[in-house]
């Protein structure tokens, strides 16, 4: 009998707390570079903006094969609903742009709730520096697919 995926274990104990800040990572299908052009990456950016009634985006970076997103939940929003909405909006835009019906995202997402004593700005700097660590650019200023409320 084939082994079942263990993704459900990631969701057990997941709790959405209004006002809580979460660091989210969402991976592209089979870790392919599906955001390799600026217009493709903008699909994810616009999708995050499309969830503004559910969450405040504090910062993000869209990498070629994944997205990092630091957000704060608004009143009565559920984290899984916010991420699902973002993934759905991005997928619709991306498929329209690319003229394909292939998958954009892997199932699920990784989240980390920041504690009250965590340095949010330091977490944002770490997220924004992803293109530097990946060797995509020499300066964050040279990378177009990121933003932060502090800038």
From TrEMBL:
Q: Which GO terms describe its biological process?
A: DNA transposition
InterPro entries noted in UniProt = RAYT_transposase, Transposase_17, Transposase_17_sf
Q: Which GO terms describe its molecular function?
A: sequence-specific DNA binding; transposase activity
Q: Which residues form the Transposase IS200-like domain?
A: 17-130
Protein known as:
Transposase
